[in-house]
Amino acid sequence: MNKFLFSLLDALARLPLGILYLFSDLITPVLYHIVKYRRKVVRDNLTSSFPDKNLKEIKKIERSYYRYLGDQIVETLKLLHISDKELIRRVKVTNYEAVNETLSSGKNAVLMMGHYNNWEWAQEITRYFIPEAFMASIYHPLDNKDWDEIFKKLRNRWNAHIVPMAKAPRVLLNKQNMPWVCGFIADAYTWHKNDNNWIDFLNHKTWFIYGPEEIGDKVGAEFFYLEMNRLKRGHYEIIFHPLSSIHKPSSPHPNPSFPLTRLFWQEFEATIKRNPAYWLWSHKRWK
Question: For the chain: N or C, fewer Cβ within 10 A?
Answer without folding.
Answer: C
